[in-house]
Design brief:
The chain is α/β, with parallel strands linked by helices and 416 residues long. The chain has 11 helices and 18 strands.
C-alpha cells in the first residue's frame, strides 16, 4: 500500500477502514543472511539500504522492545551537517542529502522541515572558530552563512544580545538544516524495509552470540537461537553491554542525555538555535512546543531518566539566551542513553571476529546521521569495505592516535 493524497481521500470517504498495519509482526526464522541487532533508526536504515541499495535478502532486525521506543524516539529531532573536520563533514553532508529526499524515498511523511540552524557566537575567538568551521563546510559542499548581530536579530528579535552576561555578536547559519519527527523516521524505515521483505522482530532481546573457530554463527535471544552469516550490532547506549557478550570492551561510555518540551505556543522560533557559551539548543515543534536540551549527565547510566542538576543547568542557559522562556511551562522531559566514544566521533567497522560488525559511538550525532549511518553500514556489511564517507570511523584509530576530536576537548566523554 502506497500512501498518497488520493488514498487519504478514499479512506476518509470509507471511514478509514482500509488501512493495514504499517509492517508485519514477523516471527523469527531459524537463519538469515543478515541479522541487525537494534531496531532503532540506524538498524532499520541499515536493513532498508541492504535490501534496496545492495539487493540483499533474508534480513532480520531484532529489537528488544518496540519500534520507536529507544533513542530514535527520545531525542531533539535536529538534522544538520555543520561539522568542521574532514573526517566528519562529508559524512554528515551525505546524510543531509539523504534526508532531503527521504520522504519521497520511503513514501512516508517524516515531517522533514529545513528551517535552518544558527549557532550563536559571543566572543572574537568564537567568531574566528565559526569562520573556520563555515569555510570547512563550504569546502565539503555544505552551505554556511556568517551573520552579524543585526542579521541575527532579524531572525530572533527577542534575543538578549546586549544586556546579557554573554552578549550575542552574531552567528553561523546553515539554512538547509532543520528538524524531522523522530519516531516517524523509525516508522518510515520500518515500513519501507518490511515492504522489501525484511523481518522486523520486536520483543526479541539478544542475550549472547554463538561462535565457532573465531566466526560468529548467530545470536542467542529471548526467543531462541537465530543463525546468521553476518551480524551487525547497532544498539546505541547498550553497545558496551551487548558487545561484552562477544568478549569485547569498547572505547565507549553510556551517559544519559535529557530533553524537554514546553506547552504548545504560538510560532516564535523560525528555526533551530544554539547557545554558544554553553550547551543549549532549542527548536519549536509543529505542535507548538519548544523542544530543547543541553549537556549529558556527568555520570554513567543505562537509565532513561536524568538528574535535577542538569535540569537546572539547561534552564539557566535557556534563560540567559531567551529571558522570555521563564514564562513557558515545561510539559514533559525524557532521557536517552548516549554511547559516548572517546573522541566524540562514531565507529562503523568490522570486529576481530569474522561475521560480527559494530556501529556505535554516536554521542550527540546519532539522529542526524541516521540515513548515512544505515547506508554506510549496509555498504560495509555487503562489501566488507568502508563506505567512502566513513573510512575514518574505524576501531584502530584509538590505537594509532588518529582520533576525530571534533570539539577539541580530549578523550573525556563527559566533556562532549
Amino acid at each position: 500500500m502506497r500512501y498518497s493524497g488520493f488514498r487519504l481521500i478514499k479512506e476518509a470517504l470509507n471511514g478509514h477502514r482500509g488501512w493495514g498495519p504499517a509492517w508485519r509482526d514477523a516471527q523469527p526464522k531459524p537463519e538469515y543472511d543478515y541479522i541487525i541487532v537494534g531496531g532503532g533508526g540506524h538498524g532499520l536504515a541499515t536493513a532498508y539500504y541492504l535490501a534496496k541499495q545492495y539487493g540483499q535478502s533474508r534480513i532480520a532486525v531484532l529489537e528488544k522492545g518496540w519500534i520507536g521506543g529507544g533513542n530514535v524516539g527520545r531525542n531533539t529531532t535536529i538534522v544538520r551537517s555543520n561539522y568542521m573536520l574532514d573526517e566528519n563533514e562529508p559524512f554528515y553532508e551525505f546524510s543531509l542529502k539523504l534526508w532531503e529526499g527521504l520522504e519521497q524515498d520511503l513514501n512516508y511523511n517524516a515531517m522533514m522541515s529545513q528551517r535552518g540552524i544558527i549557532n550563536l557566537m559571543h566572543s572574537d575567538a568564537q567568531r574566528d572558530a565559526y569562520i573556520r568551521r563555515g569555510n570547512a563546510m563550504i569546502l565539503n559542499g555544505a552551505d554556511a552563512q556568517l551573520l552579524d548581530q543585526k542579521q541575527v536579530l532579524e531572525l530572533y528579535p527577542f534575543l538578549n544580545v546586549n544586556n546579557a552576561r554573554f552578549p550575542v555578536m552574531g552567528g553561523l547559519l546553515q539554512p538547509r538544516a532543520g528538524t524531522a519527527r523522530h519516531d516517524a523516521v523509525a516508522w518510515g524505515y520500518a515500513r519501507a524495509a518490511d515492504q522489501r521483505g525484511v523481518d522486523i522482530i520486536q520483543n526479541c532481546e539478544v542475550t549472547g552470540f554463538r561462535f565457532d573457530n573465531g566466526t560468529c554463527l548467530g545470536v542467542e535471544t529471548t526467543r531462541g537461537y537465530i543463525g546468521a552469516k553476518k551480524v551487525g550490532v547497532c544498539v546505541a547506549g547498550s553497545s558496551s553491554k551487548v558487545m561484552s557478550y562477544a568478549g569485547m570492551r569498547l572505547p565507549i561510555e553510556s551517559h544519559v542525555l535529557q530533553a524537554f518540551v514546553t506547552e504548545g505556543l504560538k510560532p516564535i522560533l523560525p528555526g533551530v538555535i544554539t547557545f554558544g557559551e554553553g550547551h543549549f539548543y532549542c527548536s519549536q515543534s509543529d505542535k507548538g512546543g519548544l523542544v530543547f536540551g543541553g549537556n549529558i549527565d556527568g555520570y554513567n547510566s543505562y537509565a532513561q531518566r536524568g538528574n535535577l542538576p542538569m535540569v537546572e543547568e539547561v534552564m539557566q542557559e535557556a534563560m540567559a539566551m531567551f529571558p522570555m522562556l521563564g514564562r513557558a511551562r515545561v510539559l514533559r522531559m525524557w532521557g536517552g542513553i548516549m554511547d559516548m566514544s572517546m573522541d566524540g566521533s562514531p565507529i562503523i567497522d568490522k570486529t576481530h571476529i569474522n561475521g560480527l560488525y559494530f556501529n556505535g559511538g554516536w554521542c550527540y550525532g546519532g539522529f542526524k546521521a541516521t540515513p548515512a549511518s544505515g547506508f554506510a553500514y549496509a555498504h560495509l556489511l555487503t562489501t566488507d569495505t568502508p563506505h567512502h564517507t566513513a573510512t575514518s570511523f574505524s576501531f584502530d584509530r584509538f590505537e594509532t592516535g588518529h582520533m576525530i576530536d571534533e570539539k577539541g576537548m580530549g578523550n573525556q566523554p563527559n566533556l562532549h
